[in-house]
Amino acid sequence: MKQLFCSLLALALCATQARADDSLSDEAILGTRGGFRIESMRLRFTHFDQEGHGYQSQADRPSPSSPGSEWLQVEQPQLEVVAQQGKFTHRLWVPIDVVSAASPDALDAVSTASRTNEAASFDLSSTYHANPVTDVTLRAAFHLEEPFRSWTLGVAGSRSFADGNTTIAASLNQVFDWLDRFNLFGTRLGRRYRSSTNANLSVTQLLSPTTVGYLGYGVTVQIGELSNTWNAVPLDSGELGLEVLPGLRHRHAFVGRIAQALPWKAVLKGFYRFYVDNWGILAHTLEAQLYQRLGRQFYLRANYRFHVQTAASFFSLSAPAADGALRTADSDLAAFDAQTVGILAGLDLKFVRRLQGLHLDVGYERYFRTNDLRVNIYTCSAGFRF
Amino acid sequence: MKRALLFVALSLSLLPAGCAIVPQNRRGKLADPLLSFDEDPLEAHKKSKFYSTREGAAGGDGAPAGGGCGCQ
Question: How many CB pairs below 8 Å do chains A and B form together?
Answer without folding.
Answer: 215
